[in-house]
Amino acid sequence: MRMDNVPLIFEYSVPGRVAVALSDPGVPEVPLEAIVGAEHLRREPAALPEVSEPDLVRHYTRLSQRNYAVDVGFYPLGSCTMKYNPKVNEDAARLPGFARLHPNAPRELAQGALQLLWELDRMFCEISGMDRVTFQPAAGAHGELTALMMIRAYHEDRGEQRTRVIVPDSAHGTNPASAAMCGYTVVTVPSDARGNIDRAALRRAADGSVAALMLTNPNTLGLFEEHVVEVAEIIHGCGALMYLDGANFNAVLGITRPGDQGFDVMHLNVHKTFSTPHGGGGPGAGPVALKQMLEPYLPTPTVERDGDGFRLDDERPKTIGRVRAFVGNFGVLVRAYAYLRTFGPLLRQTSEAAVLNANYLLQRLRPYFDLPYDRTCMHEFVLSGRRQKTQYGVRTLDIAKRLLDYGYHAPTIYFPLIVDEAIMIEPTETESRQTLDAFADALIRIAEECETDPETVRTAPHRTVVTRLDEVAAARNPNLRWRPPTKAGVTR
Amino acid sequence: MTAPVSWQPHKYLPMTAEERDEMLRAIGCSTVEDLLADIPVQVRLRRALNLPPDLAEADLLAHLRQMADRNGHADRLICFLGGGAYDHWIPSAVWHLAGRAEFYTAYTPYQAEVMQGELQAAYEYQSMLCELTAMEVANASMYDGASAVGEAAVMARDLTKRNAVVVSTAVHPQYREVLRTYTRHLGIRIVEVPYQAGLATPERVAAAVGEQTAAVIVQSPNVFGCIEQGRALAQIAHEAGALLIVAVAEPISLGLLEPPGAYGADIVAGEGQPLGNHLNFGGPYLGMLATREAFVRRMPGRLVGATTDREGRRGFVLTLQTREQHIRREKATSNICTNEALNALAAGIYMAALGRTGMRRVAEVNARRAHYAKQRLCAIPGIRPAFDAPTFNEFVLHLPVAPGDLNARLVEYGFLGGLALGRWYPDLADGWLVCVTEARTRAQIDALADVVAQVVRAS
Questions:
Q1: Is A36 within 8 Å of B367 when comparing Cβ atoms?
Q2: Which of residues 58-97 of B touch A (CB under 8 A)?
Q3: What is the SS3 assignment for B318?
Q4: Taking 50 as the threshold, does the pLDDT of residue B207 lie above it?
Q5: Residue of A432, A436, A415, A433 whose CA lies nearest to A424
Q6: Of A350, A158, A454, residue with least CA distance to B11
Q7: Which of A150, A225, B184, B207 maximizes the CB count within 10 A of its CB?
Q8: Cα dist from B129 to A51, A127, B122, B154, B316, whole Å
Q9: Out of 3.40.50.300, 3.90.1150.10, 2.30.130.10, 3.40.190.10, which CATH number does the structure's domain A348-475 have?
Q10: Residues with pLDDT less than 50, chain A
Q11: Other CB atoms within 10 A of residue A75 CB
Q12: A88-345, which class in CATH?
């Protein structure tokens, strides 16, 4: 990783430099005032940087060298499924027939794209055990919101005004946030001693005011909900619906299907389970798969088969409406399609390898850290740094930062909230045993350092381009943008 | 019991059958099934997934190319279609850089010390978007233009504690649909103001605002390509104690047109696709969201801020995270988590590539060529402009033939024609929304006009 400081792109700027060559308008000259109206003309050009193309290329290349990524090394970020992002998928999405297709093109000019979506719908349904898919949502949280809106429409259509959504205390923060955006009150239910949702508490909460349970399975402890069938009975028993947060779907592909477990609707994190790259925070895609009874409420447009061809349908009387413009994050879905077509039924093996990798890594690390829920894990597991904190005064944050010095991305930390000093590790199936062993060795060495040299861990990282950053100052006095120097040369 | 497919080598899976067995032994198991014991037997899938067979890489690409080639894409047809997505030239450098795997295979920058590249690029994007829109702060991206407008309305409700939103019907209909979806369960009332002569007229907007109006939402250039009277609309909104939200579907226009921040916009929400992102059949794109500094703590989405490390060196972090769902859960400003970071990166690179003079220049070429095209097409007998208001790179024409029929004929000549507006606006059944960007040459415009003239004459 490059150690030298990289100036802001604005700081390279030299008046008069350009990084593009634009052709002349080549049409008869008409005063701009006559075209757009004098009152609408911009008076001062935007103070964008003025750089040449070589400046531009070097700048962003240098920035890229200050980034950790799956193609650089192991990324055991729990709940994020940082698996390898296949290169052929990138080539697929960049085919001009996909990348250069206009979303307003009439349907007869988009048959290839619609066919791809239709076939992806069929594959997602087979994998999830559901009946239909909407491709509208752009991300997992967007999928949650979409699904909850369909659930609400379903209940309202039956003349029921249900007001509450149940969320376990181990849930992702997006679950309660999505429920609130859909106008629901959130009821939090605790987890039991084995890390499952507490069924007694669930029974107490489940009544006619409940619209849905939002459950992650395997849950955020990396554990399969052992009583999922009974949980579904409780929820369905009070007329509510079962929603699956599909963030951890990578554990069970071809092994068990949410639709068979009693879930009525779920979102798929295409950027987790189906190998599409995270892009430094996005884009993702959060298609929602659902059972037939929710079909009338699908957001528009839906992809429909029409004789030998395909069409988009936006004439659906009971629809919840759109959640975004156009059909969805199509470019991301092309990558998912390509991924599924490289596996076929062999997809099951990805989950088996993911589960085995996680259990193998857990076995290696078990002696060195606390394990609050000691069960066979699925594709990820949650350790606790409690021992290191109480015995040596080293926090989990410090351990995470020290891992950066060893050349690894840190696991997810302090989540789920129900585990003190949580360290959530998800190796994925695309890592080799050698990588897992080397990572385990590093983490074990850090556990030893906590004992022998805690100060080095507490002050980590030491080998990164910057040391620990002052987040408190960043939030107290937000500096969210560069500002142009004033004429006197002072920053305004 | 449930392993109908035997262990096979696969190019993405390093684990060999031998390693599998060794690793199982290391954890005291004999089969993978032992690891799945917590899954109730009655919910296990007892058969292989019924998926189409796996394809080798060459076969996969051939299959995908076959599907892609069935599409009438913008390399095959000369594109005069806009309506919320725009065919601009993307400098080669943009995706050579945004396509670097160090960027696209990274996660959200939660570990700032090893993510300074992404964080700095996002800070630069936020800064450039502020400059382009003349706003004080911008976030690191939303999903798309439509959802950004929906979130902006919720933000305005939270800021003003009022529960109605006035929106012009000259705002893109899909943006308005998303606005309705996003606000339906939050007690926000949507009041639509019918457009007049292609615009949100100050008179009609003034008549629609009231004591409960949280925001006035207009789009400029609007769905018809017409440039709104931003200053007058801002005044009306502010006099009523409401915010002005300006939706920008075509940010290239801001190279030439007065930016929303200069005429009093409180929130700019829009679509960043035209800034260096491909058409992609509708996504991934990026939502732009910018506002006043005073409103930043009610803003949804990720924000990157500058700070210092222990040695006093400049560094960047995700900041003001107490607004966000992973901290505040149901009290967060929004549920958004994953955004469109890579598309924002491309937008940032695009804005830097164009720069101060290039952004102005590209906008000017759009306006000039579109104006030329409007004149050429309006010279055809039977065709007339729908509205008199000034336009940027899109405009509506009344056609003497059905727009859909004309488009079908144009495909035969190698053109992707304008948008037939009747589906969105029944009163504009003969309306044809034409888009002319800098990517269209004079020769292409002339060729289009010749074919349109021929088709109209023959009808």
A1: yes
A2: 60-61, 63-77, 79, 81-85, 87, 91, 93, 96-97
A3: strand
A4: yes
A5: A415
A6: A350
A7: A150
A8: 17, 41, 10, 21, 18
A9: 3.90.1150.10
A10: 489-492
A11: 27
A12: alpha beta
| pLDDT confidence bin for B325, thresholds 50/70/90 | confident
pLDDT of B196 higher than 70:
yes
Cis peptide before A218 (omega within 30 of 0): yes
C-alpha A221/C-alpha A425 separation (Å) is 10
Give the separation between CA B406 and CA B170, rounded to whole angstroms: 24
Distances from the Cα of A78 to the Cα of A248, A286, A427, B95, B266, angstroms: 10, 18, 8, 29, 39
Which of B 363-392 lie inside 8 A of A, CB atoms? 364-365, 367-369, 371-372, 390-392
- Of residues A186, A340, A415, nearest to B51 (C-beta): A340
State percent of chain B over pLDDT 90. 96
Question: Which pLDDT belongs to residue B1?
Answer: 41
- Domains, chain B: 78-88+362-458 (3.90.1150.10), 92-351 (3.40.640.10)
Domains in chain A: boundaries: 9-64, 88-345, 348-475
Predicted pLDDT at A491:
42
Interchain contact, A277 vs B50, CB within 8 Å: no
User: With contact defined as beta carbons under 8 Å apart, do A310 and A119 qualify?
Assistant: no
> Could you tell me the two tokens for B188?
């926000």
Hey, is the C-beta of B436 within 8 angstroms of any chain A C-beta? no
Q: Is the pTM of this model over 0.95?
A: yes
- How near does any CA of chain B get to the CA of A461, in Å? 8
